[in-house]
Structure formats: structure tokens, C-alpha cells
Amino acid sequence: MAPLSEPERRDFWEIFEDRYQVRSLILTSQLPVARWHEQIGDPTVADGILDRLVPKAHRIEMRGDSMRKNRGKPTT
């Protein structure tokens, strides 16, 4: 995954801004929140998005092996 381009950052920001304190948002990611700043690519935009998202988020972090490892293996 590459860092977001300027138009992608703008779109991502607009979604968060439109929904902030008005609507729910479900967001899934395989990238830990600690790495979102580098992925978003602009520190100011990343701060704005994370300031709106993280404080009220219900985070579910999965642990363990990936289920993809088990796909295709015959069950006994």
C-alpha cells in the first residue's frame, strides 16, 4: 500500500469531516493506527482525521494467525 495521494487525502478528510459527530462510520484496516500518519502522508490532515476518529472509536484488534493460512487446507 502506498501513501495516499492529495486527492485521496482530500476525499478521506471530507468523509470524516461530514460524519464527525453526525453519523456513524465503520472503518476497517490491516494497518495499525500508529502507522496511519505515514500512510495518510500529510501530518496536518492525519492529525485532523485521527483527532476525530480515535477518541470515540470502538477498536477491535484481531490477534492470532491469519485465517488465510487455513484456506485450501483439507480438514480432517
What is the structure about, briefly put?
By secondary structure, this protein is mostly helical. 39% of the residues lie in helices and 0% in strands.
Instruction: Give the tally of β-strands.
Output: 0
Mean pLDDT: 84
Sheet of most strands: none
What share of the residues does DSSP label as strand, in percent? Answer: under 5%
- What is the radius of gyration? 16 Å
Compressed to H and E, one letter per element, the order equals HHH
Feature tags:
76 residues; mainly alpha
Can you walk me through this structure?
The protein is mainly α and 76 residues long. It has one domain. It is 39% helix and 0% strand. The protein has helices at residues 6-19, 36-40, 43-53. The longest helix has 14 residues, at 6-19. The radius of gyration is 16 Å and the shape is elongated.
Write the layout of secondary structure elements.
Layout: H1 6-19, H2 36-40, H3 43-53
Helix pairs in contact: 1-3
